[in-house]
What does this fold into?
Amino acid sequence: MSVDGYLRYVALGDSQTEGLGDGDDVRGLRGWADRLAERIATDSPRVRYANLAVRGRTAGQVYAEQLGPALELRPDLVTVVAGVNDLLRPRFDADEVAGHLEAMFAALTAEGTRVATLTFPDVARITPLAKPISARVLTLNARIREAGRRHGVVVAETSHYPVVTDPRLWSPDRLHASPLGHERIAAAVAHALELPGSDDSWTKPLPAALDTPSLWRSTRAELRWAGAFLGPWLARRLRGRSSGDGRLAKRPTLLPVTEPAGKSS
It folds into this structure.
């Protein structure tokens, strides 16, 4: 389908698709899905865009809460990116998570919708403390590729390239992309969809960093990260809470892309 055919774009997912790390809840979140919508609007100015993503959602919650509303919007293009919150939980069932993703792929493509998703980087290359879940990431990525092939889903292979774990593409919490990271994700999905003007430049490494931190500085940074981000995240999990509790989608209806995409509704 040419970009002219994308008149209704709907994004499904969790905090990454909501846009955490790219703006804030006061000024508004932008994020890679907003950036992708802006790219589409460059060649298809009549496109309208909805973002149903909510932070903290698992793949099962995205399926239960967002698929129905998405289908009601009769989209031409949908991005489905979920599973990271499942990866980080003590109990991870790859079959269950992949099943939820595949159910969304099947329901959307059955309606003639173009669907795009992506694979995830190995988070252990971003923070060594996440090494225990490396095997989970590889397993989930394999399942995403398999489900994508079965249903004709476009898969942006963001996991393959070293640049995706460059610290400059990640926010201080190391769980969400930085503004530059969100821009690279948008470029990756645009390239996978073969949007006009897209290319593989998103895969290229950033210029060399001015300095390389010493082992001592790296260790201190790991300890600060664990105290500032990992500890509070684990505490929420133990209390059965989520960062998305009580939150609604920031853009639940289709709106012209010229309207501020990051403002909460």
About this structure: The CA atoms of residues 230 and 253 lie 34 Å apart. The chain has eight helices and eight strands. The longest helix spans residues 215-238.
